[in-house]
Amino acid sequence: EVLGRVYGLDPDSLSEPAIRTSGDAITVLLYADEFRQVNDATRLAIVAAANAARDLHRLQKLIGVDDRPHVPELRGRSVGAPHRQGSAKAALLRRILNIRGADPIASMRDFVKEYLRSVVVLYARLGPHGPAGLTFGDPYRAPTIVLNAEGKNTNPLVRRFSLAHELCHVLLDWNRTEPLALLSGYLTESGLDMERRANAFAVRLRCPERVLTS
Fold first, then answer.
1. pTM here?
2. Is the pLDDT of residue 67 over 70?
């Protein structure tokens, strides 16, 4: 049971001749370069957060909570530089959700709760130098955003940005057919464009360009 918690696996599966973790976001995470860049304490905290997301999903299914995806379809062809893609997708989301003009979003947490009901937001202590946020998505978890309760996120303005950033990963970078596990802030060359797009999405979701035109 202890090993199961550490590895993020069902303890019963450890008694099987071959452990199968296909489709689990934790498996994806174990092979990610970003996961190797954080210290052991942060890695354990990340796995614990992933386990919490899995347990929450199980509980929701037991009590009959509707877990069908309540997320708009933003995936599709994107053109231009990453920051232009992020800006365009943020504007599209505002139109889909009928957020009038340049109306401000008073609370990002309430925004997710009201408009994107299937997205789970959790908080975890990932260390003062740990990732600002994590995103998980697979058959064992609802789309989950984990925000670091330490470090820069102790500033509420930064925390708003981090939540909007991770929301972009849920809406644009998860294809629903493969597990998703992302640690934000630990940039690799292959993930740089993805992070730039998420940054632009976060900025323009909260502050549309038309706010600045005057």
1. 0.85
2. no
